[in-house]
Amino acid sequence: MVVQAPSPPLRLSPDWLPHRYDPQSDAVHFVSATRELRRAVPFLTDEHLPSAADPLVARRRDSIVAAGAPGPIHFILHSAYCCSTLLANAYDEPGIASSLKEPVILNDLVGWRHRGGNPTQIAEVFDGTLRLLSRPFEAGEAVVVKPSNVVNGFGPLMLAMRPQARCILLHAPLRVYLGSIAGKGLWGRLWVRELLMKQLKENLIDLGFAPEDHMMQTDLQVAAVGWLTQHQLFSRLASQHPDRVRSVDSETLLARPAEALEASDALFELDRPLAVREQTIERVFRKHAKFGGAFDRDARTAGQRQAAETHGDEIDKVVIWAETVAAQAKVSFDLPAPLLAD
Fold this sequence. Notes:
The protein is of the alpha/beta class. The chain has 13 helices and nine strands. The longest helix is centred in the last third of the chain and has 33 residues, at about 295-330.
């Protein structure tokens, strides 16, 4: 059932999450999602939002007026399978920041662009969507948005529209990434091909291949193409915004959580006391971000070791192939603007 929003004046508390966008009616679908719910779920998708089937529907312009003043907004862009949900969870800290893990409304705008939507209209709606997403639960809080990685193509627009926003670029090293994909079996291999199709639609792939070349590539080669494409984009973002963007890989994040969180707090200009940061590390970095239960760097390493034992030969060959592709396309495996010094 769809609940139609009342006539203006409409009032939207921060609990109302902008969840979907309908370009045909220029309407935003809001769902009730408290801070506690957002903290508990891995993603802000229908399966994790009990009220998703009963949204509040409001005209876009009315909803922006009703939402009130936005707060500071920052971003975590990621290449997937790189502990991005974990890092986003570290920014659910009342009085300091709240986080949004893969809000679906941003995916809707990607889909609209893929269907040939008018770029000017998409940009206008995107700007309004960022305004709706940046509403803090408490005065003085920032909002840290971790979009799905299919939204990465909007990264340049995000930073252009929000000149005060800062951004962390998070990725898994290629070998680790390939192990994660291979370890997920058929589902992982299908996912990388779906990602490839979306990157092709956005003209993001610039590695010297013709579109039909990808039909001759293995699943893990396709995975490497997607990884290199995101790396290429991240390199441009970090180079174009050296004062606002920092890069880090998943293994460094897990090995040096206290330093990484201190550095990312400084980037986002958040005043988190040392004692609170230490509590955040215990609360977030010792728990599996998606499935709960105990988690640490050793647990992740064990999973990587298992993937290497099962798929090591294929991964080794694809890494060598990807290094050759990267050299020809002038894509460095080392991203600019590291969050932490070596």
